Backbone:
């Protein structure tokens, strides 16, 4: 569970959420909440089930954000869409 702290913090830093404390808090809370709920479901039912989006997709998305930030810098997240 300790790694969830570091992954969520690194993701927030990559997305430049450090200047917005409530958004950073919300990101960390959602990471902890989903981690806890998934493991609580496993404890109760005895099986770990996911929907259409699995942990692997979340990890690939996080790694893609890390790679994009490393290649283009954190200013890439300031682009208006």
Residues:
């Amino acid at each position: 569970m300790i790694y969830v702290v570091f992954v969520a913090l690194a993701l927030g830093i990559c997305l430049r959420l450090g200047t917005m404390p409530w958004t950073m808090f919300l990101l960390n809370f959602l990471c902890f909440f989903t981690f806890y709920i998934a493991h609580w479901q496993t404890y109760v039912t005895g099986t770990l089930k996911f929907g259409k989006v699995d942990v692997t997709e979340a990890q690939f998305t996080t790694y893609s954000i890390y790679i994009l930030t490393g290649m283009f810098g954190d200013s890439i997240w300031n682009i208006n869409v």
In short: The radius of gyration is 15 Å.
